[in-house]
Design a protein that fits this description.
The chain has three domains: about 55 residues, no CATH class; about 90 residues; about 100 residues, Immunoglobulin-like (Sandwich), CATH 2.60.40. It is globular and about 75 Å long. It is α+β, with helices and mostly antiparallel strands. A hairpin with a 5-residue loop joins strand 2 and strand 3. Helix 3 crosses helix 4. It has eight helices and eight strands, in the order ααααααααββββββββ.
């Protein structure tokens, strides 16, 4: 297996998510030491996963901790016994920590709301405040759940070995740009992960192209700033490369090659 095939196999993603056995991890570490370019790919993967995690982060209100633990019913409670749990993979723990953080936010908001109600239960303004807070907690909780569901769906694609991963790196037009294509040659499905593409005016859109037999084939348009995997148009077998250009809003029949932002070859085999 050459380096491109190794990268496309998805083993680096599995390593970053902690899903490999100890023996498999040792083999990956040996490959990383032997091939510096794999370290670069692993770093890109870890940055991508970290970026998805931060997309769903919610900051608790300032002073929430002091207000919560200052409550008599909490302050005077004996310290709870800590029970050790069986260790899971780092990735699973990470997403559980995020979910736990969202639940903690709901608990904190509920305690604060109860405290306000006791102090100003006869005030209509306080009641409206409680209603607004409860609605915000419900919205935040639903938002977190939706984001977690989306991340789970994205990971199903990223970790599926039937999908070829194509890294599209920046051209001279935009050296720092980066995006990834996940292409399943059996189902013909194509997903796009945007890592770094500049903003565009309202009259412009990005367009993904598959290069088949030397000719560009439209794979769909998209806007900058997307954080999740984007479902693009299906592409049949035979694509040798993928590229992204800047086109008028709605896309073009033929690519404006002078605006190409990123391009990447598909690993053969």
């Amino acid at each position: 297996m050459n380096i491109e095939e190794y990268i496309s196999s998805g083993i680096l993603e599995a390593h970053a998510l902690g899903e490999l056995s100890e023996k498999e991890n040792q083999e990956v570490m040996a490959m990383l030491e032997k091939h510096p370019e794999l370290k670069e790919e692993l770093s890109l993967i870890e940055d991508s996963l970290e970026r998805m995690a931060f997309e769903i982060a919610i900051t608790p209100p300032a002073g929430a901790k002091d207000k919560l633990f200052g409550q008599p019913e909490i302050k005077d409670k004996p310290e709870a016994k800590v029970v050790s749990l069986e260790k899971t993979s780092e990735a699973s723990s990470y997403w559980r920590y995020i979910a736990a953080a969202s639940v903690s936010l709901a608990v904190i908001s509920s305690v604060l709301a109860y405290n306000y109600w006791n102090k100003w239960q006869s005030t209509e303004t306080a009641l409206n405040t409680l209603i607004a807070q409860n609605e915000r907690v419900a919205e935040d909780y639903n938002h977190v759940n939706q984001q977690l569901d989306q991340i789970e769906e994205d990971l199903k694609v990223i970790n599926n070995t039937e999908f070829k991963r194509v890294a599209m790196k920046g051209t001279d037009n935009s050296p720092n740009s980066l995006a990834f294509v996940y292409w399943n040659t059996n189902s013909q499905e194509v997903f796009l992960s945007v890592q770094n593409l500049k903003d565009l005016t309202e009259e412009k859109q990005y367009q993904l192209w598959a290069i088949i037999d030397g000719a560009p084939v439209d794979a769909g348009v998209f806007n900058p700033g997307e954080s999740n995997l984007l479902k693009m148009k299906n592409i049949a077998s035979g694509a040798a490369a993928f590229a992204v250009t800047i086109e008028p809003k709605g896309g073009s029949e033929n690519p404006s090659l002078e605006t190409m932002q990123v391009v990447g070859e598909v690993a053969q085999g």
